[in-house]
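Q: A reviewer asked whether we had any structural model of the full assembly, not just the individual parts. We don't, so I'm hoping you can provide one. Inputs are below.
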Amino acid sequence: MMRIALDAMGGDHGPEVTIPAALAALRRYPGVSFSLIGDQPTIARLLDRTGTDTARCSVVHAPQRVEMSDRPSVALRNKRESSMRFALDAVRDGHAGACVSAGNTGALMGMARYVLKTLPGIERPAICAMLPSVNGSTHMLDLGANVDSSSEELFRFAVMGSVLAASIDQRPSPRVALLNIGEEEIKGNDRVKQTALLLEKSKLNYCGFAEGNDIYTGKFDVIVCDGFVGNVALKASEGVAGMLLELARQEFSRNLLTKLSALIAAPVLRRLRDRADPRRYNGASLLGLRGIVIKSHGGADIYSFGRAIDQAVVEMENAVPDRISSALEQFLVNQPLS
Amino acid sequence: MMRIALDAMGGDHGPEVTIPAALAALRRYPGVSFSLIGDQPTIARLLDRTGTDTARCSVVHAPQRVEMSDRPSVALRNKRESSMRFALDAVRDGHAGACVSAGNTGALMGMARYVLKTLPGIERPAICAMLPSVNGSTHMLDLGANVDSSSEELFRFAVMGSVLAASIDQRPSPRVALLNIGEEEIKGNDRVKQTALLLEKSKLNYCGFAEGNDIYTGKFDVIVCDGFVGNVALKASEGVAGMLLELARQEFSRNLLTKLSALIAAPVLRRLRDRADPRRYNGASLLGLRGIVIKSHGGADIYSFGRAIDQAVVEMENAVPDRISSALEQFLVNQPLS
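A: Here is a predicted structure for the entire assembly that you could use as a starting point for your response.
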């Protein structure tokens, strides 16, 4: 039985989303159980209400909750009895194989690092997420956990991303690319150029530089970048998609005629939305920790939070931290870093 | 009479696009004239063919052409008789008030810097472009000319972007923001934090940090970032928009029914495309030079290249380099940099 420690209180909607998502996951995965961690009365009420068989759910009361506005350092110091902290403790103590949380990213990062510790050779975990593309999807890291990463760190991101992609996509040798720019006289910055040298010498299936637009072409399985760049790229992408959606909404609701055409085009628009639906890609992995931690988008709905749970299940099935640990060891032996 | 030096041979389509775009601009702007620089016979043929009054066009023969694949350093050394170089020479010698080129970005940057020189306090020009948003548009720089910019350089980008936005949008005090990430425990990297301190102390209308998604909300008039980050954000945005377009194409062409609904929704889809049309936003400014240089997208069509010409006209009307020079001087006096 694989057990997931669920931070039931995390995210904008808290248990109203996390509990139904967990119960739905119980139906999807007969081999999975949950520790539902948070305000016991609230969780119990939600469990009763749905009337689901709760044999595979235990409720763990946590008197505190990490707020979205909590500073990570403050959360780490003062929220030792929070649902987020208890969920991480459960992974550390072997009571659970993964932690899933929709809570405050900075706090989750800081707590996970403190409670679970990082793997040998890793200073800070990296955030890795799947992004949609015309064909398939691409794993991208780091998406904001690290800034000013050295070339050695970027190289380790590549190793970790490659292991994750191999596990999730069942692909023996994922195509790894390094995010760079093509406009410069001397292409890219020094760190990227040095990372490229490390990758060229490595056993990874390194395929060269990717530019920003390659994130969505499916040309690569893993795209590696500094957290500052990755975060901006991700948010800019969300911004464009949001703008196009808003413009579409405005244009289709302009008058009776356009509303009618929206009605007629509705099945196509729905399929289009489904294919690019960011909810499908919810669930970022905090890689480089001695345990599986999945960060859901704070605003996730039940379906979307379920995708983060799916991610946790796949990583447990594939023992991702162990595989990353071996890969890092192998690469660190073959290729001493710093 | 304002004169534009046109690199007629630049871009994927060369004179087939640049000449008709220039002739159309002559009709739009009675006070504008052109030096059409490139292969004389080709240009002459295109002028004859259209039968336009060419009193405001002089043709300047340039025996060489900078190729898209030319390395900037090689172009600088070996293409001294190229249309691109002659266009920049014309600006330097006062024969033209602006250069417009759809050629190789790196070569244009390098040549412009060598031929025109940068303004006092500016080491390398920055690339600034307008990006669409739900309401209005946003000027963003640098988009790839500089990597690893110092906080002093980022501050100067802010000054230049603010002057450009004030000129183009006729806005006395443009809202300036600094691109940053919000996911980190300690938000942002050191350079961004130091730049924020410089901006807070300045007379610019500094409005704090922007995240990637803010590029497309219209919350700010100017967004400042390092060229690496800006380039990735821009390309990632293009990537998402391209993916959504491709998915829409696939879904609408799936079968007879969906094709029919595309037909019915066509007017709405066309308006939507027009509002987000990247061609409308063609024409990036190379800021910080002692002259106006506008870089068009290499793949620009006639309409789109015309937008780059429009950009040159606005900048000439507003004497943007002079205004930037004064602003830099003012800011350098009030606030000595490095």
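A: Points you may want to mention in the reply: Chain A has two domains: 1-121+288-319, 126-279. Chain A touches chain B through 66 residues (CB under 8 Å).
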